[in-house]
Amino acid sequence: MLCLQIRDTYKQGSRLTELDVIRPMIDCDCLIIEDIGSTTSIGRNESDFSNRTIFVLLDSRLEACRPTFISTNKSRKNLEASFDERIASRLGVFKWIGIGGEDKRKS
Question: Which residues partner with 70 through β-bridges?
Answer without folding.
Answer: 33
